[in-house]
Amino acid sequence: MSGTTKNPPGKKKATNTKPKTFKFSPENTASIPDILDLYPAGRQESAVMPLLTLAQRQIGGWLTRAAMDRVAEILGMAPIRVYEVATFYSMYNHAPVGKNHIQICTTTPCWLRGSDEVVASCHKILGIGLGETSEDGEFTLGEVECLGACVNAPMLKINDDYFEDLDPARVEAILTLLKRGDKPRHGAAPASGPTTLLEVPARGPGSGRGKS
User: Fold this and answer.
1) By residue range, what is the domain housing residue 56?
2) Pair (104, 173) in one structural domain
3) Are residues 76 and 106 in the same domain?
4) What span, in angstroms and rounded, lies between the C-alpha atoms of 157 and 3?
5) Model confidence pLDDT, tens digit, residues 22-67
């Protein structure tokens, strides 16, 4: 179901400038041994996804071939095996994306619950279609397969945040806040705020985690 629409006049599609080199920042370089230590000796290739995520965050939301090659070098993997992982999962982007990367789930449960209306609301507020980036570089609109929140369909993801139980009015309110530079409430928490998962886990790619 994933794909892009044709690029109409006046709309900007993300373009890949393909930098030829990549080097992890000193901070991210320092975190790599901690990430590798999470896996048994001889199984460090299992860290390919955390390292790809680390590289993508450093670059600004997308992966270059040079970054994938660097991950392959660190893990002692054939580059093609890293490319296979990076191109299989929609969480990895291969062209620049906007500051707010909006990914709309259009798989069957979300579609039955109104994902078409979610897409239409995004187009109404942002003036872009699926696969397009706004002229100011603030928003990229994409379509993805199931994001695992079917019980609260329809939903979309903006960067790392999930927005669930959507209708056109809520989508428009969320995007209006983002355009204003404000941060909308995400998830499916009650209006009074979340009551569970209140602490941010200390572990994660690039978080400086160590052995436990």
Assistant:
1) 26-88
2) yes
3) no
4) 16
5) 999 999 999 999 999 999 988 999 999 999 999 999 999 999 999 9
* CATH code assigned at 160: 3.40.30.10
- Measured between alpha carbons, how far is residue 35 from residues 17, 23, 83 in Å? 29, 17, 20
Residue 207 forms part of a structural domain? no
State the helix-helix crossing angle for 115-126 and 168-179, rounded to 10 degrees: 30
Q: 81 with 111, same domain? A: no
CA distance 163 to 39: 32
Nearest alpha-carbon partner for 55 in 32, 80, 76? 32
What pLDDT is attached to residue 41? Answer: 87
Question: Cα(207)–Cα(28) distance, rounded to whole angstroms?
Answer: 9
| pLDDT tens sequence across 199-210 | 877 765 555 444
Tell me the pTM. Answer: 0.75
Q: How many domains does the chain have?
A: 2
Boundary (domain end) residue, out of 88, 116, 134: 88
Q: Is residue 18, in this structure, part of any structural domain at all?
A: no
Strand 161-163 versus strand 139-144 pairing type: unpaired
- Give residue-wise pLDDT tens across range 63-112: 999 999 999 999 999 999 999 999 999 889 999 999 999 999 999 999 99
Nearest-5° Cα angle at 57, 178 to 91 = 80
Is 32 inside a domain boundary? yes
Q: How far apart are CA 12 and CA 99, in angstroms?
A: 14
